[in-house]
């Protein structure tokens, strides 16, 4: 079985580049040049030095003793929450900003949901001295105010998007419209393994540093580079793509992808695309997406803004279809219990996204000898307001 | 088999006016009325938009009309039944424009079959990849006598333009500038150079200029460099007014098509 992208930009039945002609020259330029640029020695040298000295890589692989005791297995946390800006998102933006400079682009655009990718993009734009415009759904700008302030402090322009449902899907549409209108000087930094080819592959390659490090670190700690399980949450799926990347062709490593069930997969308020999605085209890629019978894209729901996306990257659709990855869906409530659990057991406040991955431990049948690597994709500071509101709500006596 | 779009270009190769409107806008049952009124008012071609939740290439005016049409209950199935109803009363070439996903969900062969049945002549599916059309869909569209129209932008390479010219048999949709729909055509030097560059390619197909054509002066400018032009967002603004819909359409088309140059 092949899990890498083919020359047409597909993972099995998923992927491709379904874009209007206005985007074709830019996407085609990227397609022709991305591999060559990324693997140039001078590019790699610059990238590695930034990943080390600026991002703070390698991020630790931490043996979580008390969590391991609770689940009766050996659980390691890959600490992407300790990367600069607080999540794995920066691995991709550092790579893409170097690429944009080599393409001679002077202006950067990005979409963001919770604001993590927006912050990671604004950060690297400040670093590179490039203009930065971030599209963010108006509703998200209101519920993620601290990240809006961060982006602005970093010098980015944050554009609140009022079209459609005013969330991540529409922010992505608006970023694409910007790129249509500014094809010559602008590079679009997509934040996940979504979008037209070559984006899913390019972003996966920049995130692959996660599994590259896991292999080495696990070898040092366990005397084996392959764990029994790798667990990661999936919205679009960039942290999962990075954590799975170097294990895709190692069949003894079981891959676990965790989606957001929202209020529950049958409630109409969910983001569990592998359960609710069907084959279609979203943001330039053929993949699984949540849609009506008429092919209109449905607005998802998750308490976690980072998982609140109606599609999944084409790689993950392929992993789902082939059974290479096992998919779980975790509700808002389950994820919040894991936020509290990890905070109290290990002194680590996880992002709500990453807490979905943690909750999957409750559903997996683990043996005491199993070695599990869980990608802790981000830290929970950004979610404090959501977490506090949630806890206050459930602690209220009934009838109030 | 006759294709009205192909026939039209055989007979007329100048000042062609193609008008875009969104199906089911401003009201669900407006489609037939707008279509018939446009024909009577003198439009040469109509392009009917199939509304979509995520119209990537469209500016705010057309986006909004898509949202309203979907809220009104518009769907591809409904559009086919509306077109079937007015089929006997409409003679001008009809193009359907829409994004690929709803068409895929409808089923692409079933879509072509239905389109042919209700009298559709051409299709614009802006996010359908050219190579997939060549490798996969071309025989299907051909079977149902549907002419597929492709977009060309200022950034499209000559090699690709020639390929597009070879692949189509009705016209080439010349996007006026790097923009989504609804921005005004300025007629600046760079734009005119682009129009001239395309003119000099001596393509076999006629060209219609679209995106930003909004009134008589931009229409006349476009007709200097191409066989005609496409008006979309500006027309959507005209039909936003539910009152005196037909009169407004007649007035607008008459104003755009008037031969006299725009007085300064």
TrEMBL record, chain A:
One of its GO terms (molecular function) is tryptophan synthase activity. The beta subunit is responsible for the synthesis of L-tryptophan from indole and L-serine. Tetramer of two alpha and two beta chains. Pathway: Amino-acid biosynthesis; L-tryptophan biosynthesis; L-tryptophan from chorismate: step 5/5. One of its GO terms (cellular component) is cytoplasm. InterPro entries: Trp_synth_b_CS (IPR006653), Trp_synth_beta (IPR006654), Trp_synth_beta/beta-like (IPR023026), TrpB-like_PALP (IPR001926), TrpB-like_PALP_sf (IPR036052). Pfam families: PALP. Its EC number is 4.2.1.20. The keyword Disulfide bond does not apply. This is Tryptophan synthase beta chain. The gene is trpB.
TrEMBL record, chain B:
GO terms for molecular function: tryptophan synthase activity. PANTHER family: TRYPTOPHAN SYNTHASE ALPHA CHAIN, CHLOROPLASTIC, TRYPTOPHAN SYNTHASE, ALPHA CHAIN. Belongs to the TrpA family. It holds the Pfam family Trp_syntA. The keyword Amino-acid biosynthesis applies. Pathway: Amino-acid biosynthesis; L-tryptophan biosynthesis; L-tryptophan from chorismate: step 5/5. GO terms for cellular component: cytosol. The keyword Amino-acid biosynthesis applies. InterPro entries: Aldolase_TIM, RibuloseP-bd_barrel, Trp_synthase_alpha_AS, Trp_synthase_suA. It comes from Adhaeribacter aerolatus. Gene3D superfamilies: Aldolase class I. The alpha subunit is responsible for the aldol cleavage of indoleglycerol phosphate to indole and glyceraldehyde 3-phosphate. It catalyses: (1S,2R)-1-C-(indol-3-yl)glycerol 3-phosphate + L-serine = D-glyceraldehyde 3-phosphate + L-tryptophan + H2O. This is Tryptophan synthase alpha chain. It is an enzyme of class 4 (lyase). Tetramer of two alpha and two beta chains. Transmembrane segments: none annotated. Its EC number is 4.2.1.20. Keywords: Amino-acid biosynthesis, Aromatic amino acid biosynthesis, Lyase, Tryptophan biosynthesis. The active site is at residues 47, 58. The lineage of its organism: Bacteria, Pseudomonadati, Bacteroidota, Cytophagia, Cytophagales.
